[in-house]
Amino acid sequence: MHIPVNLYPATETQGISSNLLHKKDHSRNGYQRVSEATGKEVPAEEIVRGYDSAHRPLGETVVRKTFNQR
Fold first, then answer.
1. Can you give the residue ranges of every domain in the chain?
2. Which residues pair with 70 in a beta bridge?
3. Which spans in the chain are helix H?
């Protein structure tokens, strides 16, 4: 009897990571809320989350479902 087994490295990360993005131009922001594109500080209400590869903002409903928030 043969049982197929898949091995995965314990250090490999899986899942989707997101970044803080400036709502107007979708540039990445650090925790200091400074736009990479302009170097200027961005108000918290102008920051949205988005996928790193697509640089597209996520809708609030998607974020809430993904992170199980109400």
1. 18-66
2. none
3. 60-66
Condensed to tens digits (0 to 9), the pLDDT of residues 14-70 reads 677 788 888 899 888 767 788 888 989 888 888 887 766 555 666 655 555 555 555
Q: Are 49 and 66 in contact (CB under 8 A)?
A: no
> What 8-state DSSP symbol labels residue 41?
B
What is the CA 10 to chain-centroid distance, rounded? Answer: 22
- Cα three-residue angle 62-36-59, rounded to 5 degrees: 10
Q: In 23-45, which positions are buried (b, 16+ CB within 10 angstroms) versus exposed (e)?
A: eeeebebeeeebbeeeeeebeee
